[in-house]
Write a structure and sequence with these properties.
The chain is globular. The protein has a single domain, classed as Roll (SH3 type barrels). It has 161 residues and is mainly β. It contains 3 helices and 11 strands, in the order αβββββββααββββ. It has a 6-stranded mixed beta sheet with strand order 7-6-1-2-8-9. A 3-stranded antiparallel beta sheet has the order 3-4-5, with no helix packed on it. A two-stranded antiparallel ribbon has the order 10-11.
Length: 161
């Protein structure tokens, strides 16, 4: 069965743009195959400004998202699987949709299992022509999941201005 995640991301992106807001994607930079500027990754996460005026050549296929954006004035081609997306939201009001972290595909890990299990918590926001840092803190809910003794908590996003 085809995943519905890329369809939901595209629909949310269009909805955010149609409302005149600025779409942002929070991406797990440690997900296998992700191509983002690592110098802007904070604790395994990068938040990307996806405004149509900030990017060019956007392609959001079912298996791969790609576009060009500027980081410190340097045009960079970015690419990642939809599974690497942790959230899509509007900068102005935070409306959007978080996604649970996807398990990394074993065939793509290539012996990096221990490095890639870190949970992302902070991000940088890539803006058109420059990068502005904003604190986006992923905090843990007090409730734990009800699975057989599992103490894994679900992350939530809080924007600190």
């Amino acid at each position: 069965m085809i995943s519905n995640k890329p369809y939901i991301i595209r629909a949310m992106y269009e909805w955010i743009v149609d409302n005149g807001w600025t779409p942002h994607l929070q991406v797990d930079a440690n997900y296998p195959g992700v191509n983002v500027p690592q110098e802007f990754v904070q604790e395994g996460v990068i938040v990307l400004n996806m405004a149509p005026s900030a990017i060019v050549n956007l392609s959001m296929d079912n298996s791969w998202f790609t576009f060009k954006a500027r980081f410190n004035g340097v045009e960079t081609t970015l690419g990642f699987a939809p599974e690497a997306v942790l959230a899509i939201f509007a900068r102005e009001n935070g409306q959007g949709m978080p996604f649970p972290p996807e398990p990394y595909p074993e065939e793509l890990l290539g012996g990096k299992e221990e490095v890639l299990k870190e949970e992302p918590t902070l991000s940088a926001v890539a803006d058109s022509g420059s990068v502005q840092k904003k604190e986006v803190v992923a905090s843990k809910d007090a409730e734990t999941t009800k699975k057989k003794g599992s103490k894994k908590k679900r992350p939530t996003l809080t924007v600190v201005k």
